[in-house]
Amino acid sequence: MININSNNILKGWDRNxxxxxxxxxxPHGSYVNLGIGMPELVSQYIxxxxxxxxxxxxxxxxxxxSPNENEIDYDLINAGKKPVTILPGGSxxxxxxxxxxxxxxxxxxxxxxxxxxxxxxDLANWSTGKGIPAVxxxxxxxxxxxxxxxxxxxxxxxxRPKLVNECSLPLTGASVVSRVYTDYAVLDxxxxxxxxxxxxxxxxxxxxxxxxxxxxxx
Amino acid sequence: MEINKVKEKMTDLLSxxxxxxxxxxxxxxxxxxxxxxxxxxxxxxxKNLTIIANNAGNGNIGLGALIGQKQVKKVICSFPRSPxxxxxxxxxxxGEIELEVVPQGTLAERIRAAGSGxxxxxxxxxxxxxxxxGKEEKIFNGKKYILEEALHADFALIKAxxxxxxxxxxxxxxxxxxNPIMSMAAKNTLVQAKKIVQPxxxxxxxxxxxxxxxxxxxxxxxxIIETIAIEEGLTYP
Lengths: 218, 237
Known about the structure:
The complex is a heterodimer. By secondary structure, chain A is α/β, with parallel strands linked by helices. Helix content of chain A is 15%, strand content 25%. In chain A, the strands form two sheets. Chain A has a ten-stranded mixed beta sheet, with helices on both faces. Chain A has a three-stranded mixed beta sheet with strand order 7-6-9, with no helix packed on it. Chain B has one domain (6-119, 151-231): Glutaconate Coenzyme A-transferase (3-Layer(aba) Sandwich), CATH 3.40.1080.10. The relative contact order of chain B is 0.20.
């Protein structure tokens, strides 16, 4: 493994490109839950050849984009507690029904951020082990959604790999991640390691391996 | 004599609340949060309360203010961090308030179970995580699950859009959230509704929470909107 420092960190895809790659992998007719933050970008890149239904775990199916300033309704918010809209064909439900959609395996895809992902598909994204613990719906989503996609930078701000042999932070779920989208590559979790599905043009395979703990293969 | 669950005074609505009670508070963030009932509870003065809610208050109104008045000894919730959630954080960091963090779906299902006579259930949520520690495990069809127990309460504070004198309720948009299941889980369900229709709902298809789950209702025509109130610097009392 080469020593990664700020001088030799390569630049891969920007976050919009990552969002577009995820958007292209969501099939027509899917029910999708996008995590708060970077995953929310995905909805901007859905092509016209498909319709996706967005679920917000506070009890909204068929979520639309942010409202105009004069259309804000503080009773119509998303899981990030920001005002949103509801699209034609949408519906409201109470929290237990909304989480039955997740826990009962009805949500086709969820897209979440990550602090660490292990080679076995373990995910850590809810706690640094410090501060006030707060979990929200992350553990339900990773346990219940049919496919768990992770959208993340490949390296931490300090330049350490996020794709690791064993997570050091408290887990959100064990063996739950299906696919990881980073600024360097798209990787599937397999029994043999991180399988490269796509790699950014400017990223050599050897570099990808050097910034990933655990085996990467093509 | 007709059934009438509608109360005119907040003191009548909250008259049965006692020190040490376990109280569910509806709402997800500000949507569906019964801010006026929480302010009524501050005026009432009950102490050593255990609060079950999704969050632990924002700003110094509603649940944030109740915690600020040191009336709460424990919070059971999924996400106790809010952008302006000062009062909980202060007491938590000093070790003055207990916290039980529960995954949001498990929280909802534990509440639903309590209202439905189900003492416990197995779930895959949180398996292999720190939140599964000490919980009974069981394998079904080769997959591991943990046992979670029903979450009961003495009272539920609920915000509805419309009620009638029977306590039949419906909600507004995502303000529904925890309110219907908490109404079912608590022994005493106390409701603030924006509008009370007389004599009853014209269309029974519109009832989301049937009145059997509701004990008392009060009309609060123009409830505080949390975001605007916090922007304006409102605090309570």
